Amino acid sequence: MSARILRIGTRASALALWQARHVEALLRAPPDAPPVELVHIKTTGDAQREVPLWQTEGRAFFTREIDAALSAGTIDVAVHSLKDLPTALTPGLTLAAALPREDPRDALLSRSGAPLSALPPRARIGTSSLRRRAFIARTRPDAVPVELRGNVPTRIERLRGGDYDAIILAAAGLARLGLQQHVTQYLSAEEFPPAVSQGVIGVCARADDAATLARLRALDDVSARLAASAERALLARLEGGCQVPLGALAQMRGEVLHLQAAVCALDGSRELRARGSQTAARGAVLTAGDAVALGERVADELLAAGAAELIARERSVLAVAAP
Fold it and tell me: Taking the complete model, does pTM exceed 0.85, yes or no?
């Protein structure tokens, strides 16, 4: 009897295909590997390219349709940029593997080769992220944020064509596509805290598909899993989403997991920061539960400082701005 074909659902963008093919190669590596095929799925985020994501209702713009196919059984594995995946997964699905994290930082690409601090007054900076807009406003209040959509190569072409003075992209995507040569400056995670789980590829499967889960479990990276667990727990506690200017980064240093996070007003006028760390109990190792506890603790510190009020105010501003 031939082995069951393992079907991997993915978007068709260059970066999404790179990620899916990377997972495909890992799944094909063992001697007993099953046949694997990619299934291209168009998502809401792909279809609505002319509308800023923050003006689009709901969440999971780049994952909803893929996860629906996974739930329906038309695919067996879903590959996502983990930063796109909601903290509350579709019932019946599970995050089976978090792959080793690529550089989590944001990267500035400028036409002139000037870093952020040396861009001309009122420089036009392209980004589709409210988080990036907020931290731009914090560090360069004179800059003019301009909406930027499309896949990574398209965004770079628009920069080179003169639509922007600079654009900000995830360093991880540029590295995976071999486009690092376009980077002018890697933005400090302290000054520009990245999106939750930025740089981590998340692989989902059905919670009752034991055979697939067993294969995917071998791909799970402990450090990436712990970091993502802490960051996603923080995001869930704050009830944030891609429409909220929140950045966070968890990192393992030795045996200690450290987490820093910041919430920033869209106009850069106010910023709240918190940080914490978690060490395993003597004779034990850190668990995902430890990481979740750290994320919730740092979130509670932000909430005590007024994060809920700041987020509510920014959401009301966005509600007025949306068409």
Answer: yes
